[in-house]
Amino acid sequence: MRKLYEDVKRMVVRKVRMGKSLFEVRELYRALTEQWETLPRGWTKESLRKYWDTLTGGTPAGEGGVRKCISKVKDVYPDIDDAEAFCASLADVLFPGWRRKAAEERRRKKRKER
Fold first, then answer.
1. Which of 47, 92, 95, 107 has a 20 to 30 A CA-CA distance from 7?
2. DSSP letter assigned to residue 77
3. 97 Cβ contact list (under 8 Å, min separation 6)
4. How many CB atoms lie within 10 A of CB 43?
5. What is the rounded CA–CA span in Å between residue 15 and residue 34?
6. Can you tell me the mean pLDDT for 90-108?
7. What is the DSSP letter of 39?
8. Global model pTM greater than 0.90
9. pLDDT tens, 3-28?
10. What CA–CA distance (Å, rounded) separates 33 from 36?
11. Rounded to an integer, what distance in angstroms lies between the CA atom of residue 79 and that of residue 56?
């Protein structure tokens, strides 16, 4: 989880135009991870993985799983008002480092296109 915070912090420092202070980033990070660190009674990492597999068909986060999750959540759970944040934070718990890996893959593909 600390790694996620550092990644978000670096992102905001690089993109100062976003207008977010480091305090706001810390609060965002805490809000995202706090919900998953205190799972509802009876939930475990294994049950989170099964839930992810149900939403994505077992696709890992960096390989299109987050997009599948977002699509499924919007269809099945319309009362979740920010499906993107929900799925991304779930992926952060199950696939630490997926954002960095996905960004590196996008950069690699972009270089090949040139």
1. 47
2. -
3. 3
4. 12
5. 25
6. 85
7. P
8. no
9. 655 666 566 555 544 566 667 766 76
10. 5
11. 19
